[in-house]
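Reminder: ligand-aware prediction takes two inputs, not one.
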Amino acid sequence: MGIEKKDLRVAFGKFATGVTVVTTRDSHGAPVGFTASSFTSVSLDPAMLLICMSQHSRSYDAMTNAAGFAVNILSENQKPVSDNFSLKNHDRFENADWKSGPSGYPLLDGCAAWFECQRQNMIKAGDHIILIGKVTGFDSLGHAPLILSQSKFL
Ligand SMILES: Cc1cc2nc3c(=O)[nH]c(=O)nc-3n(C[C@H](O)[C@H](O)[C@H](O)COP(=O)(O)O)c2cc1C
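Here is what comes back for the chain with flavin mononucleotide:
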């Protein structure tokens, strides 16, 4: 069966998701982050989650070399934050309100929840890499989440 990427994207988009910004620090300590909807909760005990990152992402080296990362679950009014962290060729963190979390990874202000993780495993899968993290800290805040369905924010 020949698979048209465009059609596959439409079919994958029928699965509604939240939207996250995944962050870490590069080898110089500079903040790095990108928008990702591929977040999945994996395990409660031990607490684990995963995200899938394109192997072509400019965040690839930082994300695969760092000891861990943070996942910021965006809240319903943070569409501009999603846009900011998916646009290329500008300083994403200069345009964001953020602070370092307990483990030093960037946490964005106004999120619905955040998790800090130690990276536990990496699995190359097709044109992406699956990053599996063990949760070392998290918080769930009062905001409702941003929802993405069929390539549109609800
Ligand atoms: C709503 C949304 C969800 C996205 N989800 C993912 C994802 O799960 N994994 C991924 O690698 N890229 C995802 N992207 C694309 C990246 O955010 C974008 O390609 C990347 O930030 C481009 O810049 P980079 O190469 O500097 O990372 C998503 C983009 C948007 C707008």
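The radius of gyration is 15 Å. Helices lie at 5-12, 60-65, 79-84. We will return to this case in the review session.
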